[in-house]
Amino acid sequence: MTVFRWPLTLLALALVWFDATGNARGKFVTGDDAFVRMDYESAMSSYSSALLRDSDQPEILRRMARLYLCLGDLSPEDHQQEYYKKAEEYARQSIRADSTASEGHTWRAAALGSLAMDGSAKEKIQLSREIKRELDIAIALNPDDDGAFSILGSFYRALGNVSWIERRLAGIFLGGLPGGGYEQAEEALVKAIDLDPHVFRHHYELGRLYADWDRPQDAVTAFTKAIEVGPTMAADRMRMQRARQMIAKLQDQN
């Protein structure tokens, strides 16, 4: 989603929801509109009010998970974990309320990926198994979930960056890592782009993969496309700057 940074198909999530009588439920519309505009303070106010009225509504819980992930990405490093923990908690609650919706599993995988960044080696390996399990569930529930494929690509890229000796030690002492690497990362990220080419994250993560994989021209192409697409979440503005820096660095190397 962070390794996995999050952020996914915003317009698809900015839906108008209807109740049994067919009336628009403004509690979603107002918050979704603010979220798409990257006005996270207003989105929080709207979603929190909706949550007070209906604390078990999975759509609200999933939106809160998504929002806390975005806030975590924007926060100073010493405060990020508290936001990611809240995101994971809301995603878990949404799964309890409705385990058949892929988004809850996708957002939980994203939150766990962000939490893993500061974990110990043992915690990272344990979380990696849980992340993979949640992504497998999300994709099984919705094979068109571009967010799940994007996070899966980041997940496999991280595995590709693990050396043989680190894998060996993880297998001996910590129960082993899931399989996968750069090839699987490329497949997942290309799938995410095919499903929704208008999401910054998908192209940016593909660029990071190609940079790690020593494919500089492909990396420049992917980073350039990410910049053309533009930010879909507020933290993407920072990533756009990194993409420009990576393009300059890679071009200097050739």
Total tally of structural domains? 1
Overall pLDDT, averaged? 84
- The CATH architecture category equals Alpha Horseshoe
**Cα end-to-end separation:** 31 Å
Structural class: mainly alpha
Which CATH first-tier class would you pick? Mainly Alpha
Q: Give me the CATH fold name.
A: Serine Threonine Protein Phosphatase 5, Tetratricopeptide repeat
The global form is globular
Q: Let me know the largest β-sheet.
A: none
Series of H and E elements? HHHHHHHHHHHHH
Low-confidence stretches: 1-24, 168-174
Rg estimate, integer Å: 18 Å
Assess the beta-strand content as a share of residues: under 5%
Beta strand count: 0
Helix fraction?
over 70%
Draw up the topology in text.
Elements (H helix, E strand, L loop, with lengths): L9 H4 L12 H11 L3 H14 L4 H17 L2 H21 L4 H15 L4 H21 L4 H15 L3 H10 L8 H14 L4 H13 L3 H14 L6 H18 L1
Overview of this protein structure:
By secondary structure, this protein is mostly helical. The protein has a single domain, classed as Alpha Horseshoe (Serine Threonine Protein Phosphatase 5, Tetratricopeptide repeat), CATH 1.25.40. 74% of the residues lie in helices and 0% in strands. It contains 13 helices and no strands. The longest helix is centred in the middle third of the chain and has 21 residues. The two termini are 31 Å apart. The N terminus is likely disordered.
